[in-house]
Amino acid sequence: MTSPHVFYINEFKIDLSRSVIESHDKSVSVEPKILKVLHVLALHQNEVVTHQALMDEVWCGTEVVQNALQRCITILRKELGDDAKSPQFIATHPRIGYRLIAPVIWQPSEPIQGTADETSGNNSVHKNKKLAVYAALTCIILAFTTLFFIFDDFASFNSHRLTKQFVQITPITYTDASESNAIFSPTGDYIIFNRYAGSCKTHIWSRHLESGTENKLTKHAGVFGPATFTQGGRELVFSSKSTCNSDNQTSQLNNKMCAGIATLDFSLSLSAPQDPLPRLQCQSENISSVKSLAHHEYAYLEHHNGQTRLMHYNDLKKQSKVLSEPTLQLIYHFDYNASTEQFAIFIRDAEFNNVLEVRAKDGMLQSRNIIEIHSKMSVYQRFYGHFIAHTNDLLVVSQGRLYQLSLSGKLHHIPTPSENLISAVKHPSNNRVLAILGHKDTDVANIKLGDTTAKIAARDINTTVLPFTSFSRTEAKETHAMFQPNGNQIAFISNRTGHDQIWLWHKNKASQLSQLNSQVPLHNFAWSVSGKELAWAEGTQIMISNLAGELRHFTTKLPIYSVLSWNDNNKMLVTIEQQGRLALYQYEFVTNTLTALNLLDVENAWIKNRTVIAKKKNGSVFTRPLLSESTQWRQLNSIYSKAMHVSDEFIYSVPNNALTINKYTFDGTYIETLGTLLPTAWKISDIRENNLLLSQFVAIKHDLVVLQ
After folding, report:
1. Which of 57, 102, 140, 419 could pair with 400 in a Cys bridge, judged by C-beta atoms 3.0 to 4.6 Å apart?
2. SS3 430
3. CA distances, 440 to each of 417, 425, 592, 613 (Å)
4. What is the mean pLDDT of residues 46-51?
């Protein structure tokens, strides 16, 4: 006799063929595996079915995530309105199994397991043995199809590939402004994006694709995160705050500085700009990457004290809860698939892997896989993606390139005419991709300290402006210029060839020193004390080049994020990422050892007069003796810097709240102010006598395009 597809438990109708639970006028879709658990319990109503028997029958010995069975029971109890402490449907037998205690009515009425006399004549142990036999037979059948499913999974991934390559780029916006965070509306008729409005603020805009009509949706500019649509497309939801981040200690304690959740009525905003409606006011933790779930529920990332966790917020109940908070790991991005009610969570683990976790809407883990990075990728490379409609894959951008990523961690590169992509999303019904394309144009200037006062009116980074004369003008991103010790050359980082390389400026001519073929970004570099060599990090290798381009390298036990300073022929200061925070280390070549200096969030560091001076990302400055047994750091409270350089005798700092260059002693005593800089040209990188090297913003060129 074949197994019935429909049965009743009290007032609930369970339809296995449609994978639904019905009661009165309500119908709820439930995962087939969950209903399979209920089906097995129903076949053995009022009998204890062991954990192992359920696992063998439902999953047939395949590997599943921990607590998969417990998750199924939890969801069943929720849908049946059951209480684990006083059960009316499913009883728990600790460390043994589960028992369905509610009566079962089958359709057709005859149960699959024989007559009532036969059922009463067998005990639970005997039934579990029979169940194991059935499970074994099922496993044998499935064994013959295992290879099919393996190849089918591979074929499915390939069949869902967007295209072999994109060959055409069509511009969508033509303004001088910078666009970001572009998405399609659910119908694909509109695109929604952020447009830079000056002073680090943006407006949210829409553009009707057919007519080209643009509408500003927000009445006032603000610091708005990427927007997503609520289910049904009525509202936009995003993170929002009214003022920009400030790095001084006072503003960090000001709750108004952190981002909360806001929504915007889309149809009303098309008629006239609206003020966003606050949904969740932040307390002290910053909120980002807000996604809409359903029924006024939202998911978001919460950042606090260097940790990040995935949160759920119910706006009707005004309640928040944690969905995922991995220890010793960093969540840096996530997306939500409304059709499958699944989260794709991107994580950096303690072994420097990029991990893709899939979790259900309630936060239960469904799968966890390492993203298989390609050979030329950096271990510090990250992936930011969106689910592709009608598939379980994600469209991902990393280091300017486009990829398709499966939930199993397989990464497929999709060639595009340009590899300067910032983000990309697929159209909901055709093969077109909406992308942000562009780059940041920064140059390096070499000026006299007495000439730093603005010669032109201060301008924002929304339009092309050249604050000071660049010594090597290009439209590429060029940064971190440093004078050669004991010489007259200048080294700097430039991506004018398409990837970061070390360049030299000498006798009014630029020449490329490094020949890196990987996609590894260069975050910093250091001159040797003699000025005859330069060092930088490339994964687990510290690369050292002489001025002729001849390389030697040292393999380190941990991947180096950046080389900060080279204080003698044998030692240098480096940073290593730990749960998303940069930790300061000293590396020694001879012994190939890395020594932790116990300071996090380090942006730059120097060793002068046997003293380590370190600047954190938030602008605070700390010092400690290099050779002391004490690991205690002392903060220089008089210096709070957004840009800094340390020479052999002095500290030069551009404070967070001003555009002046201030000079200090090593103990933080103020000496004098040397000059004034510009709002787009203040990032000093080196000082020699009266000569100053700094990076300056020229323009940010981010445009909306369609890939076909």
Report:
1. 419
2. coil
3. 19, 21, 37, 30
4. 87
